[in-house]
Design a protein that fits this description.
- There is one protein chain.
- With 606 residues, the chain is α+β, with helices and mostly antiparallel strands.
- The protein folds into five domains: 93 residues, DNA Primase, Chain A (Alpha-Beta Complex), CATH 3.90.580; 122 residues, DNA primase DNAg catalytic core, N-terminal domain (Alpha-Beta Complex); 126 residues, 3-Layer(aba) Sandwich (Dna Topoisomerase Vi A Subunit, Chain: A, domain 2), CATH 3.40.1360.10; 42 residues, no CATH class; 121 residues, DNAb Helicase, Chain A (Orthogonal Bundle).
- It is built from 24 helices and 16 strands.
- The strands form four sheets. It has a five-stranded antiparallel beta sheet. A five-stranded mixed beta sheet has the order 13-12-14-15-16, with helices on both faces. Strands 6-9-10-11 form a four-stranded antiparallel beta sheet.
- Helix 1 crosses helix 4 and helix 21 packs antiparallel against helix 22.
- The N and C termini lie far apart (65 Å).
Length: 606
């Protein structure tokens, strides 16, 4: 379908996208503190100067000045036009691009607003449900739940509040009535998995009853689901929210939001099996544990983890089920491991789980176990050697045969080369014997990746921002933050003859002062198809600042500089005019005094 893409759709698409995920799918990112670093894909360099900030959702290169969000990265890296980049980003999010002819644009905007209001209503409903369970925990109806958390599990009130723990009462419709009174329909409550509708009778009742409740929050802190644990012997012991428009088990990790809220640097994450394990570890000061939600760790889980940290530790029970779970986790993990990512496997004593063990031996000893957990390479070799006698030639061949499909999934790099070298020692086979068929081989050197550089980027991008004219800096800033036009003094004008940037800037200011609340996308769409539009698009790709606050300060400083420069130029022109009068011309006294003041000013500056 042709037609205009609503601005509201574009803004929502960018807000839903993760810049680290988009960038990380195209170049190799390495975790450095809260950010990621990499060799810049837009200019040749030997040391990383390209940074991705997942919290503020932007990227920036300190070498060439490239910066932007997920959408601008697609435009730059994949060499896409604006509309093509929107379509690509929409495919990643699994949504259809909204387009309308101009006569249908208003209808499209209204439709998108309705969709946004629907999403907001879902989040409000989930938030109210969370607050309801928290309130019940402090009432008589939640007394058993509060006793379970405090007396049996030793949780403090501070931790109860931090994880928003609650309780569901024994009745059938406490939550349903509470939400209905607040104006939320039964249909919405069913859609969100908060209540259940019995098909044969049509009866609607609360999903969680007589359970302690663990709210599941997404990475932005929105409540998207719940987990409940029974307080008696009824089944099932644990119950999760079903899949809903807000909640997908394969993507969410319990405790991830809380772990990211903690002060200081998040270096690694410990993956455990249950809600209570996460909370019990946090009570002992280990705030970097997360749990899968009744499923094995998925590829999406691991991608999300590695976007935040460079190291993950899997914690398993020491029984047969734990051994099987570890093997599944390893196979999911292998394609995602590179030389900058690390994984370990921790197996607990038989009969223990993280909750019981950390309360028994304390955080210090438990952390020692984590630090001594088996690295991925050692676990992989141990897994392959199970049940084999490597003094026997047949078992050596079996080991090599079992290793081939696993090695095929492991990315090229130092880790893979070390594992292959160790397997050579164990089996006596050559590197070629161990090389999986159809793989790219195990070369002694890491493969060389050619740096892609879009044709649209010119030499200006490779200069530092210090070499840019003030007009060019201001132009790039205003294209990136159009609403900051209010920081530019009204009296500031530009000589279009000075340079191209000044000419563009004058026209841009006139437009923005009439429409001060537009976004960059609207600006580009308005000028699309014109020479100015192409120039503005180039500046959007070459944005300078890292954040809005810094941009506002820079615009103010540049404006001040330009005003001073204009004043100095006027003074210089006047000085030259007075000094250039013929020697036979007698200047009036007022002009003589003016000339003397100008001479003094120039002397002081020199």
């Amino acid at each position: 379908m042709t037609g205009r893409i609503p601005q509201a759709f574009i803004d929502d698409l960018i807000a839903r996208s993760d810049v680290a995920e988009v960038v990380g799918a195209r170049i190799t990112l390495k975790k450095t503190g809260k950010n990621y670093s990499a060799l810049c894909p837009f200019h040749n360099e030997k040391s990383p100067s390209f940074s991705v900030n997942p919290d503020k959702q932007f990227y920036y290169c300190f070498g060439c000045g490239a910066s932007g969000n997920a959408l601008t990265f697609l435009m730059e890296h994949d060499n896409l036009e604006f509309v093509e980049a929107v379509e690509s980003l929409a495919r990643m999010q699994g949504v259809q691009v909204q387009r309308e002819e101009r006569q249908g644009y208003q209808r499209s905007e209204q439709q998108h607003r309705q969709q946004k209001e629907q999403a907001d209503q879902r989040f409000r409903c989930m938030e109210l449900a969370k607050e309801y369970y928290q309130q019940v925990l402090r009432l008589t109806a939640g007394e058993l739940g509060l006793n379970y958390f405090r007396a049996k599990r030793g949780l403090s009130d501070e931790l109860l509040e931090s994880y928003a723990l609650g309780a569901a009462p024994e009745g059938w419709d406490g939550l349903k009535n509470h939400l209905s009174q607040a104006g939320f329909s039964e249909e919405l409550q069913i859609e969100l998995g908060l209540v259940v509708k019995k098909e044969d009778t049509g009866r609607v009742y609360d999903r969680f009853r007589n359970r302690v409740v663990f709210p599941i929050r997404n990475i932005k802190g929105h409540t998207v689901g719940f987990g409940g644990r029974v307080l008696d012997d009824s089944k099932p012991k644990y119950l999760n929210s079903p899949e809903t428009p807000l909640f997908q088990k394969s993507q969410e990790l319990y405790g991830l939001y809380e772990a990211r809220k903690q002060p200081g640097r998040l270096d690694r994450l410990l993956v455990v099996e249950g809600y209570m394990d996460v909370v019990a570890l946090a009570q002992q000061g280990i705030h970097w544990a997360v749990a899968t939600l009744g499923t094995a760790a998925s590829e999406e889980h691991l991608k999300r983890i590695f976007r935040l940290v460079n190291e993950v530790v899997f914690c398993f029970d020491g029984d047969a089920a734990g051994t099987q779970a570890a093997a599944r986790a390893m196979q999911t993990l292998l394609p995602l491991v590179n030389d900058g990512r690390h994984a370990r496997f921790l197996f607990l004593p038989t009969g223990e789980d993280p909750d019981s063990l950390v309360r028994k031996e304390g955080a210090g000893l438990f952390e020692q176990r984590v630090n001594q957990a088996m690295p991925l390479a050692e676990y992989l070799i141990s897994y392959l050697r199970q049940g084999l006698d490597l003094s026997l030639l047949d078992d050596q061949a079996r080991l090599a045969q079992a290793a081939m499909p696993l090695l095929k999934n492991l990315p090229e790099g130092l880790l893979k080369r070390r594992i292959v070298a160790h397997l050579q020692e164990l089996t006596g086979l050559s590197r070629n014997d161990l090389q999986p068929q159809g793989s790219s081989g195990l070369a002694n050197q890491a493969p060389v990746t050619q740096v892609y550089q879009p044709a649209s980027r010119n030499k200006t991008a490779e200069k530092t921002t210090r070499t840019l004219p003030a007009e060019e800096k201001l132009l790039r800033l205003l294209v990136g933050y159009p609403d900051l036009v209010t920081q530019v003094p009204l009296g500031l004008e530009f000589d279009s003859q000075r340079n191209e940037s000044a000419q563009l800037l004058q026209g841009l200011l006139e437009y923005l002062r009439k429409s001060p609340h537009i976004t960059t996308q609207v600006l580009l769409a308005y000028w699309s198809g014109t020479a100015q539009g192409e120039a503005f698009l180039q500046r959007a790709r070459l944005a300078l600042e890292l954040n809005r606050e810094a941009a506002a300060q820079e615009i103010e400083a540049i404006s001040h500089h330009l005003i001073n420069r204009k004043t100095e130029e006027q003074v210089e022109a006047r000085y030259s005019d007075l000094l250039g009068q013929p020697e036979t011309t007698q200047l009036p006294m007022a002009e003589m005094q003016e000339l003397w003041k100008l001479v003094q000013q120039k002397h002081l500056k020199s």
